[in-house]
Amino acid sequence: MDEAPLLELRNLNKVYDDGFHAVRDVSFSLPAGKLVGLIGPNGCGKSTMMRCINKMHPITSGDVLIDGRSVLDQSVAEIARQVANVPAELKNSFGLTVYETVMLGRYPHLRNLWWETEEDETEVVEAMRKFGVQHLQDRQINMLSSGEMQRVLIAKAYVQNPRLMLVDEPTSHLDMKYKLNVMEYLRAMVRQNMTALVAEHDISLMARYCDLCVIMKKGELVAIGNPREVITEDLVRDVYDVVANVGLDKDGEIYVLPKRFVGDYEL
After folding, report:
1. What CATH code is assigned to 1-82+162-228?
2. Is the pLDDT of residue 191 over 80?
């Protein structure tokens, strides 16, 4: 018998109270141990779909299964033991230090209500070392650069020991160096038993780093598969209204070079 996929979406729909149909009948499955890029233009439903996966948004219809079990009959606490979230930014830090922020990732697993165990502390210290922020452990989170903040948020999710990590626009405020730095960390942290689903606008970055790409447009699934197979010049034109060159560089890495906009209006 084939092993159940780590994540499976079955005819997922999300309709907001104002009638806006943000996610339209989306179905796909992901195995464990993959870095997966979730890409598409603004407003295509990427963030909404991820919030349905972890029940931050109620699902209108359809289902989401993690390790073969529906999230519909699970509590938020149960889901937090399996799914970790890495937001684009931490809006309310409440004066927390880097160490305290990373420790928040252990809370779904705490056996004691008011204090952490030595095992929790060891995991947090190791994660800070792994993601290069241990030297910042006593610094307040709101004093960090954007690149440092992203590494701290990834470390926080990492110590949660999730099966699935949902990462929302991790490079949106970063310069070129830190974009590559964060993607290297994400690729390094994907384990045999864990998959990371990364929502991102930079299609070229996702094509280079990800094992699989999920492409969306207007709330619908357009394609899913190996980026070298699914990311084509025709797809970029269809999804983004952009003419682009898609090819391989001298190192054999895929690239996407936008050339011009070909949408319905002109500036």
Report:
1. 3.40.50.300
2. no
